[in-house]
């Protein structure tokens, strides 16, 4: 995590729906580089494409590296925009998905992929960041002083 800490108690700006999308891969066989390396390399162009075009709906992201598992945490404006990106014939996702499926059939399970999508309605999430650089949803939406949305978690959830 980098960046200068924002002093005080902050919360993410915005109160509407947010979609949390986790996507990742698992290397099942380290020796099968031809199976897992292209999957790993496909993640970055998609993130760059989304970051260049905010109208697509991705609010922010964070890479979650690991030894065998690599994931990306993403925040989206809506499930409709996430699904539109996933099915966009002209975007980076469709060719990467098709290539993975071809590799999966030939690769005998050397690499796995997964994703989880959570559509979180307005009023069903809250957060606090104390003396932290912008992080998570706060990095994606910006932060405001806690008092603007309620001093207590229960108040922020009810807003």
Automatic annotation (TrEMBL):
InterPro entries: Monooxy_af470 (IPR025444). Pfam families: Monooxy_af470-like (PF13826). It comes from the Bacteria. This is DUF4188 domain-containing protein. It comes from Streptomyces endophytica.
């Amino acid at each position: 995590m980098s960046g200068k800490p924002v002093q005080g108690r902050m919360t993410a700006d915005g109160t509407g729906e947010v979609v949390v999308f986790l996507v990742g891969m698992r290397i099942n066989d380290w020796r099968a580089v031809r199976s897992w390396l292209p999957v790993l390399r496909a993640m970055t162009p998609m993130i760059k494409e989304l970051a260049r075009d905010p109208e697509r709906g991705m609010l922010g992201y964070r890479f979650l590296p690991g030894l065998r598992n690599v994931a990306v945490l993403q925040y989206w404006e809506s499930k409709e925009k996430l699904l539109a990106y996933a099915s966009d014939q002209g975007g980076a996702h469709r060719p990467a998905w098709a290539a993975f499926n071809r590799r999966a059939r030939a690769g005998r399970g050397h690499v796995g992929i997964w994703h989880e999508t959570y559509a979180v309605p307005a009023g069903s999430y809250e957060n606090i960041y104390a003396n932290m650089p912008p992080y998570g949803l706060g990095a994606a939406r910006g932060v405001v002083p806690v008092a603007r949305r309620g001093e207590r978690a229960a108040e922020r959830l009810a807003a």
